[in-house]
């Protein structure tokens, strides 16, 4: 087992690795760690390592054919000012997959990357 201080990794299957790199680095503050586009890249933000696997990558090839579409799982990014993030991303031409939702823990909205994978932007409720 890896040490607890290692990066936590999530794999997203994407149709276009370069489009995914551009999306995550331009709009969500990730930086490129490794790029072997068009097959694979990984980008990082804090302790999260996001593996972007294109159709020719070993990660994508290992996925069963009946699991080819984006899932209901999502990465969860905490933001300080959700309204400002929504405005910034809409100004950049992005659209959201859900409406803004408020609950006892905070507020959230979903957007998708170019391959349809979900990203949750979340602002915790203030104590």
TrEMBL record:
Pfam families: Glyoxalase (PF00903). It comes from Amycolatopsis thermophila. Keywords: Metal-binding. PROSITE patterns: VOC. It comes from the Bacteria. PANTHER family: METHYLMALONYL-COA EPIMERASE, RING-CLEAVING DIOXYGENASE-RELATED. SUPFAM superfamilies: Glyoxalase/Bleomycin resistance protein/Dihydroxybiphenyl dioxygenase. Residues 6-124 form the VOC domain. This is Catechol 2,3-dioxygenase-like lactoylglutathione lyase family enzyme.
């Amino acid at each position: 087992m890896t040490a607890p201080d290692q990066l936590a990794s999530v794999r997203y299957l994407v149709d276009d690795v370069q489009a995914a790199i551009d999306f995550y680095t331009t709009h969500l503050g990730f930086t490129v760690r490794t790029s072997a586009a068009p097959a694979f890249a990984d980008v990082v933000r804090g302790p999260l390592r996001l593996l972007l696997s294109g159709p020719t990558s070993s990660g994508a090839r290992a996925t069963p054919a009946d699991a080819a579409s984006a899932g209901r799982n999502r990465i969860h990014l905490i933001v300080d000012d959700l309204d400002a993030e929504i405005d910034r991303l809409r100004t950049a031409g992005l659209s959201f997959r859900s409406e803004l939702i408020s609950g006892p823990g905070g507020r959230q909205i979903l957007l998708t990357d170019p391959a349809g994978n979900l990203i949750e932007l979340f602002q915790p409720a203030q104590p």
